[in-house]
Amino acid sequence: MGHCLLRCPYNPHAYYVCGTDGVTYNSECELKRKACVEAMKGNPIALAYSGRCRQHGHCE
User: Fold this and answer.
1) Which residues does the UniProt record annotate as the domain Kazal-like (predicted)?
2) Which of 11, 27, 35, 60 could bridge 45 with an S-S bond, Cβ 3.0-4.6 Å?
């Protein structure tokens, strides 16, 4: 069984990314860290796109 990063190093140039789980991560490193943990559980997560995840709410 592999090991996943516990923390990502500080990066002042990091940018938000959206995962295929619909969660906005503070950096690509944070997404990869979470993806590693979830992959071990059989729940793969990948990069969906750069930037914050768009909310798919309903207008009232």
Assistant:
1) 1-55
2) 35
